[in-house]
Amino acid sequence: MVKKVVESSDLTKLISVTDPQISPDGKRVVFVRTQIDEKENTYTTHLYHIDLKTGQQSQWTNGAGRVLSPRWSTDGTAVAFLFDRGKEKQLFVLSIADGKMNRLTRFENGVDRFEWAPCGTKIWINAAVKKEDTQSQSYSQIGLVDHKSKSVEFVTQGNFNHHLKAVSHDGEKIVFGLAGNLQKNPHQPLYLYDTKTAQQTMLTEEQGYFNGAAFSHDDSKIAYAGSMRYYGDATHTELYIADLLTNTRFCLTEGMDAPIGDYAISDYKKAVAPAVVWTKDDHLYFQVSTMGDVRLYFASLDGMIFPASPDMEHVYDYNVSRDGVYAVLASSNPIQPGELHRLTITTGEYQALTSFNQKFMEDTELVQAQTTFTTGSIDGVHGWLIKPASFEEGQNYPLIIKVHDTPLEMFANTFSLELQLYAASGFGIFYVNPSGSQGYSQEFATASRDFTYKDLLSAITDTMESADWIDVSRIAVLGEEVAEQVTLKLESMNIATTFVHFPDLSRTDTPNRRIARLEQIVNWLADNV
């Protein structure tokens, strides 16, 4: 069978899976499946369910709108989620027994986040509430919604945004972040709130930015992510442990010179993966961005840390069973769009749970990226080179050099329809993580723009010398400020180079505008390179 080449309209064929949530008994998983509705030019997301024993899948919600952030009740009899019909997100609860959906909130600005109370009859929420003395100013506050009466009781107030992070298993404590204007004051300390006494105490340092907390199963400890921002936005995010019994704190990942969390650049809008997940035996799991991968890592409280998932892939969302036996990963690699996989942690066995993009992969010619390493200003510079889909030995081809300008991200071993489209259009593609990128050492991440620029030039010239199929008279550089500087330097070296900048709306814009952008870029490149 002859496979077809990638087209911009293939965007409508790709299906995204996110937010896997394992049931309390460990036998089922719910997740969110997103696809494009071409007629309505929008994204439709629904709640899906998998029986882990039989592998049977079923769709649990229907109709227009977007389901977000599903969460099982403590007893596994219901799933709560946010539902967005295009105006605001409201909280709904789905009964597993009869499939009935019950709307719990009707806030003007919607609900941002929620967590089940352990009793199962109430749900903690974050919602924007207007101040009593004004009709325009509002702040995010935390409250409790009663499942039956739908009444809301707020427990926070004031001219600050309170961000709900975690609820203890006994229901007696919550963790929240307190933030004002993050642009003026980029700090967010975490606070511990006692639901019985209404007293709050500071859990973290006041000057750092901390996020994503989780209670251990006996509620004696809290794990949370964040940093003291010693290097501003480039500071590695670490994982911390607060021991509530001894009133002590320590950094669990202090000896690991890589940031926790997901810093990968991909076609997909970033999933809101948990910062950390505890198992009942006090082991912890979290994402780490390292060498172009985003992997699931294991840690014990005595400081043992190692990767739990394979390399050469992007784990963009995950969940771990309470007993720590297995994890459900939403993962991708350069020639496979995201799917759910079950990882048996003790054996490393990897089992596919979904195959929504299988037909696209079977019908379409996709090109694997080749890893490259060149000498850099601080460490080796890691990159990828993709040959044109029509590649033939002895022929010369134009090259696209893709540059990212933000220090907060990294190119990664993940699927990109945009890069595959360039390859299908007859272009080679080269992209690297120079000094200043995340996913490597702290020294690497904090490098100056001068080092970034030097690393890019070195990697590009080395690659053009080693890959004899590159037509050095037909080079295009895609990016922003740094990309333009690279273009000027290559031109001074008598390498015919074109610089082009297109706004990168690929992960957030409407489907028709994303497709139009891809077509505009490819057509421009075909006419000018």
From TrEMBL:
<comment type="similarity">
    <text>Belongs to the TolB family.</text>
</comment>
<dbReference type="Pfam" id="PF07676">
    <property type="entry name" value="PD40"/>
</dbReference>
<dbReference type="Pfam" id="PF00326">
    <property type="entry name" value="Peptidase_S9"/>
</dbReference>
<feature type="domain" description="Peptidase S9 prolyl oligopeptidase catalytic">
    <location>
        <begin position="414"/>
        <end position="479"/>
    </location>
</feature>
<dbReference type="InterPro" id="IPR011659">
    <property type="entry name" value="WD40"/>
</dbReference>
<dbReference type="InterPro" id="IPR001375">
    <property type="entry name" value="Peptidase_S9_cat"/>
</dbReference>
<dbReference type="InterPro" id="IPR011042">
    <property type="entry name" value="6-blade_b-propeller_TolB-like"/>
</dbReference>
<protein>
    <recommendedName>
        <fullName>Peptidase S9 prolyl oligopeptidase catalytic domain-containing protein</fullName>
    </recommendedName>
</protein>
<dbReference type="InterPro" id="IPR029058">
    <property type="entry name" value="AB_hydrolase_fold"/>
</dbReference>
